[in-house]
Amino acid sequence: MRGLYIGRFQPFHLGHQAVLERIALEADEIIVGIGSAQASHTTSNPFTAGERLAMISGALRKLGKWFYIIPLPDLERNAVWVAHVRSMLPPFDLVYSSNPLVIQLFSEAGIEVRKPPLFRREVYSGTAIREMMMAGDDWRALVPPGVVSVIEEVGGVERLRNISQGDRPF
Ligand code: ATP
Ligand code: MG
After folding, report:
1. Which of 15, 58, 152, 165 is the most buried (most CB within 10 A)?
2. Do 115 and 97 contact (CB within 8 A), yes or no?
């Protein structure tokens, strides 16, 4: 059975890791789709698809399952999004998501969706982690060690703080 997990992973955190561990108990192969793959260098999408791929591959390797990581650019046409996703990925049997729109779109297409439980959502949240980075708070304990390395390697926190400043008035 091939299980699909889609997210933006801005950044990949321990909540995502927990979902992947759950999927690994059920699936023989794991497909991770990197959503909004075209986006980067914004306050809601600071990291490139390639940087996110590096974050996720370290985590997946440790699970010992065959895996694929595939960037998925936004289509901005929800009605045909599932066909777009299918055109980019190996065939899959099951989708794991807690995102209401993703659940709705796959369900309408007749594809089974399982909703993994949310793990410590108040802190294991991309939005919360990006806010901590911008505020100068310590976010490192909320992501796997390999993700800390990728973010440090690309100067991710400095990037996020720089782009969040906006133009300064004279
Ligand atoms: P953002 O705040 O930027 O939306 P996020 O933490 O929701 O970030 P996404 O990349 O949007 O991360 O999430 C991908 C998938 O992982 C979604 O289905 C989301 O519901 C799920 N997810 C996010 N955080 C957790 C968590 N703590 N536990 C379980 N699932 C999570
Ligand atoms: Mg989200």
Report:
1. 15
2. yes
Give me the CATH code for the 2-164 domain, please.
3.40.50.620
Query: For residue 107, what pLDDT is reported?
Result: 97
* Domain locations along the chain: 2-164
Q: Ligand 1: which residues within 6 Å by Cβ?
A: 7-10, 15-16, 18-19, 97-99, 116, 118-121, 124-127
Residue nearest to atom 13 of ligand 1 (CA): 7
* pLDDT tens profile 122-151: 999 999 999 999 999 999 999 999 999 999
Give the nearest ligand 1 atom to 124 CA. Answer: 27
Residue length, the chain?
Answer: 170
pLDDT of residue 167: 74
- Which residues touch 100 (CB under 8 Å, ≥6 apart)? none
